[in-house]
Amino acid sequence: MFKGLVLHIAAGILGLWLAVKFVAEVEFIGEIQSLLLAGIILGLANLFLKPILKLITWPLRIITLGLFTIIINLALVWGVDILFPELIIRGILPLFYTTIIVLTLNFLLPKLFPEKTIA
C-alpha cells in the first residue's frame, strides 16, 4: 500500500513536470514547492478519488468500453489545475496531453518497480 502511494505521488509530480516542460500551453509560474504539492495532490487524488469515481461511473465505463476513464482522469487533472493558480493549462488539448502523460506514468511506474512477493 505504501509503495503504491509513493508511486502515485511520483507519477503525479513527474507527470506535471513533464507536461510543463514538453506540452505547449502548459505553464507553471510558481515555486518548485508548489509544483511538488500539486503533484502530491494529483497523486493522492489518483489513489483515493479515482477508484470511487470509477465505481460510481461503471455503467458509463461499460457503455464506452472503458473510454470514460479518460474523462475521470481529465477531471482530476483539471481539478488540480483549478486548485493551483500557478499551474496554467490553456485549452482542452493541453489538458488531454497532460492527462495522458500522468496516466502513462501511473501505468508504467508500478511495472518498473513491482511489489516483491514473499515466497
Q: State the share of residues found in helices, binned by percent.
A: over 70%
Sketch the major β-sheet: 2 strands, antiparallel
Number of extended strands: 2
Proportion of residues in extended strands: 5-15%
What would the average pLDDT be, to the nearest integer?
Answer: 93
Poorly predicted regions: none
Approximate shape: globular
Give the terminus-to-terminus CA distance.
19 Å
Q: How do the strands of the widest beta sheet line up side by side?
A: 1-2
SSE pattern: HEHHHEH
What is the number of independent domains? 1
Report the total helices.
Answer: 5
Radius of gyration: 15 Å
Structural category: mainly alpha
Layout of SSEs?
Layout: H1 2-22, E1 26-28, H2 32-56, H3 58-63, H4 68-83, E2 87-89, H5 92-112
Antiparallel strand pairs: 1-2
A few lines on this structure:
The protein is mainly alpha-helical. It is 75% helix and 5% strand.
Keyword list:
single chain; mainly alpha; two-stranded antiparallel sheet
Task: Provide an overview of this structure.
By secondary structure, the protein is mostly helical. It is 75% helix and 5% strand. It contains 5 helices and 2 strands. It has helices at residues 2-22, 32-56, 58-63, 68-83, 92-112; strands spanning 26-28, 87-89. It has a two-stranded antiparallel ribbon. α1 (2-22) crosses α2 (32-56).
